[in-house]
Predict the 3D structure of the following.
Amino acid sequence: MGAEERIPLLVVAGPTASGKTEQGVRLCEALGGEVVSADSMQVYQGMEIATAKPTLAEMRGIPHHLIGFLPAAERFSLAHYTALANAAIADIHSRGKLPVLVGGTGLYIRAVAENLILPEGKTDFALREALAQRFASEGGAALWRELAAADPAAAAKTHPNDQKRIVRALELRQSMGLTLTEQNEASRLAPSPYDCRILLLGMDDRPALYSRVNRRVDSMLAAGLLEEARAFLAQPAGATAAQAIGYKELAPCIRGEATLAEATERLKMETRRYAKRQLSWFRTQCPQGAVVPARQGRWVAPEATIEDLHKWKEETRVF
């Protein structure tokens, strides 16, 4: 597929609390776009506060796709996401609008932007959960050593604490006989149908980002996060939704095993750690992204950037 035939796709990415929602809406207003969420937790219903799901007021009339459509008890995979995201992007483009992919789930963004072809076959959720339990009981280093023996190239790019990547690689090896390296090589055989422009927020001022994380947690609690967590923990949840940051950190407080202040500090710490992992991922896996510089603790795309995006959009022949 030639460059002139590709669909323009704007990506707004970065760690949690970097202002992606606000910037995505602003760019949609300026460029005539619609948002496609790239957040693995915002797909679920009833998790509004913990996942920082945009409110109607924050959306400002801009259509948002792939938000709040799935019951929390349902499992959701990367393959499910890419199929739905590609369909949403095609629909937006067919109506003369610019698709804007907004979120912080790096693998979702990469799979869509690079058109990764995922291996066929049903996800072995039982194996995945067994590996996750081993990671928790034996430690990441033990499973990382198994990965190093099976797929040295993947292990060299993976931190021993990266549970999601290690579990995914071992699951792929045990269920389908493929190494992660082999799967990644095969997944790139088809060219991407998208002409992507990527903006990265929150990458250049970690103290400012961590300060925003702390303030966001305070705002979430003020908005009713504790009550939302109590309701969530009282209901059965699928393995995917249960990974959301916000509920398990408050669980000791709900059980009377910790004070709210103690649980709040734990939640802030875990959210900062998550932001740090996201920063590392985008730095290593998304080098082509344009970093939006911080200005007074915020990340706002300059007018010059928006002008450049206007030119890119107009020069895309099929748009």
Observations:
- The first strand starts at residue 7 and ends at 13.
- The mean pLDDT is 89.
- The CA atoms of residues 245 and 270 lie 8 Å apart.
- The chain is about 50% helix and 10% strand.
